[in-house]
Design a protein that fits this description.
Shape: globular
Structural class: mainly alpha
Largest sheet: 3 strands, antiparallel
Pfam families: AA_permease_2 (PF13520)
Number of strands: 6
Protein name: Amino acid permease-domain-containing protein
Order of helices and strands: EEHHHHHHHHHHHHHHHHHHHEEEE
Subcellular location: Membrane
Number of helices: 19
GO molecular function, one term: L-amino acid transmembrane transporter activity
Radius of gyration: 25 Å
Distance between the termini: 27 Å
Membrane topology: Multi-pass membrane protein
């Protein structure tokens, strides 16, 4: 992979084999003489040391994305699917271990390529042909599905519930959701330090809430509760079929594990902002395992607490979040009614803060390389020296999802869709690491080394997550208001849309467009990242047929030994 080198890199020879092309680099077009075509526009990216994130901040970036509403609501459907207390607890523990397997894979990549962008950088390191194809697929998935609509709307609904209203998916809740995402984007854009401080504060708050549930669960086990003992631990491994739970079969178990694994989603959040971490390799290697292990322990113990205070039938048929039943059974109706909706609402906005912060940085990284339409604008740090434009892109997509679809199945389908394509992306990352390990020509090294069977486990997990939704359920095929296969089919289609975008961007537009905006990314003598944008006229072509030759200068940290230079025929 190589280490960062300051200053511009030398140009490659025109006879370089196309197989060595790497999309790690940003793009620049040369004229027929091999010289850069002139252009003045440039953007500098320097994150002040005072705004860089330490271990504590990185921990809370991960915690805030991982802990949303899942742990407060998902245990109900997990138990309804399995009918066994022991199997439920086992699933939460196993999902934590599976999450750690994925974390180990991402640590190996992240410590070898300590740049912001996450999977973008890891996929580009492995899948270098066709140039920019994997980047385009990832970009479409991240921009279109990386929105914060779900947790923004949940914030609006629980604010209304805390004020004494129902829990509808209506316009009042959506209006509050728009205000939520607008506040978050404005805070990160104008007052970035306060955005991180609020993120950290809400991370502490989430941990405190979960600790309250855990220690209340210990009290319930000791007999201190306002309801009779539910006796859920008398025969912990028994598989029962009762009123609203059990009897779901293999499909129910598979979907239950699917839900539990998705409740851990967010563990990779710090990888997206490696460029903004203090001592990034040290910070990530400490913060990420600490956050994931801590969340796993809290999740398992929180489920123990729920079973200690909630009878099985009541738990399985719950029409409100499980934590609501728990608070009612432990502290009475008034305490639960007053406190819980506000607690969950704050948990939701913490998730929105963390996701908006990191996903906007990924959008900016994509724009820096000219991947997105209007890249110069989306990559800009004006006027606050923050990624305000890429934050605006995140806001636009989120608001469209919030106000566009009508309430009901269509909206729920769209909000839940964003999780599915991630299984394919993560699977490609895991498969790519296996390839790097076995390839003698790649010369792969990293300060962190994942045990090979762990990589295979993570690959199998993502194959499971990608394939299971295609399996027909035992009951109604349209239980959610749409065919069961629509969810994975459309999710896969979004990845296919990325391939279509790649064809249009790299083949169609260069042939028929008047010019294109390309980006050159280098590290200057001060160590600051500089991105220069150039408008290239269609007349600068090397042949009468209009064929244009694109040569690319490698990004900082790329190694010429592994295809940092190359050509693309447009």
């Amino acid at each position: 992979m190589g280490t960062d080198q300051k200053g511009p890199k030398p140009w490659a020879s025109p006879d370089l084999d196309a197989a060595s092309i790497s999309s790690v680099a940003a793009s620049e077009i040369l004229d027929v003489n091999g010289q850069p075509i002139s252009g003045e526009d440039s953007l500098d990216y320097v994150v002040p040391e005072s705004r860089k994130i330490g271990v504590t901040g990185a921990v809370f970036l991960i915690l805030n994305k991982m802990i949303g509403t899942g742990i407060f609501s998902t245990p109900s459907s997990i138990f309804a699917s399995t009918g066994s207390v022991g199997i439920c607890l086992l699933m939460w523990g196993v999902a934590g271990l599976l999450t750690l397997s994925g974390l180990s894979v991402y640590l190996e990549f992240g410590l070898a390529i300590p740049k912001s962008g996450g999977e973008k950088n890891y996929l580009e390191r492995v899948y270098r042909q066709p140039v920019y194809l994997v980047t385009s697929v990832f970009a479409v998935q991240m921009v279109l599905l990386g929105f914060s609509a779900g947790n923004s709307l949940a914030f609006g609904r629980y604010v209304l519930l805390a004020l004494g209203y129902d829990l509808p998916d209506g316009w009042p809740a959506r209006a509050i959701a728009v205000l939520c995402i607008t506040f978050v984007i404005t805070l990160h854009s104008v007052f970035p330090k306060w955005g991180l401080r609020l993120t950290n504060a809400l991370g502490v708050f989430k941990v405190v809430v979960l600790l309250l549930i855990v220690f209340s669960g210990f009290a319930a086990l000791a007999g201190h509760r306002r309801v009779p003992d539910p006796h859920n631990f008398d025969d912990i491994w028994s598989i029962e079929k009762g009123d609203g739970f059990g009897g779901g079969g293999a499909y129910a178990y598979a979907t239950a594990l699917l839900q539990v694994v998705y409740s851990y989603k967010g563990w990779e959040n710090a990888n997206y902002v490696m460029g903004e971490l203090k001592h990034p390799k040290r910070t990530l290697s400490i913060a990420a395992p600490l956050a994931v292990v801590g969340v796993t322990i809290l999740y398992v113990l929180a489920n123990v607490a729920y079973f200690a205070a909630i009878p099985k039938a009541e738990l399985a048929k719950s029409e409100v979040i499980v934590a609501g039943l728990f608070f009612r059974n432990m502290f009475g109706e008034s305490a639960a009614a007053r406190s819980l909706p506000a607690l969950v609402a704050l948990s939701n906005i913490g998730n929105v803060l963390a996701v908006s912060f990191t996903h906007s940085r990924v959008n900016q990284e994509l724009a820096k390389e000219g991947i997105l339409p209007g890249s110069k604008f989306w990559a800009s740090t004006k006027p606050f020296k923050t990624p305000a434009a890429s934050l605006l892109l995140h806001w636009i997509v989120t608001v469209i999802v919030l106000v566009g679809p009508p309430p009901g199945p269509a909206y729920n389908f769209l909000v839940n869709l964003y999780t599915y394509p991630g299984a394919w992306i993560n699977g490609l990352v895991a498969g790519g690491l296996i390839y790097l390990r076995f390839s003698k020509t790649e010369g792969w090294t990293s300060p962190w080394r994942t045990w090979l069977p762990v990589i295979f486990i993570y690959l199998c997990l993502n194959i499971f997550l990608a394939v299971t939704p295609f399996i027909p359920p035992n009951d109604d095929w349209n239980a959610d208001g749409y065919p069961y296969y629509a969810f994975p089919l459309v999710g896969t289609g979004v990845l296919g849309l990325g391939a279509v975008y790649w064809v249009v961007w790299t083949k169609v537009l260069p042939r028929f467009g008047g010019y294109e905006l390309v980006a050159e990314k280098v590290i200057d003598d001060t160590g600051a990242e500089v991105v220069r944008y150039r408008k290239i006229s269609a007349t600068n072509t090397p042949s009468a047929e209009g064929e244009s030759l694109l040569r690319r200068r490698p990004a900082a940290g790329a190694s010429a030994d592994h295809g940092s230079y190359g050509t693309i025929e447009a």
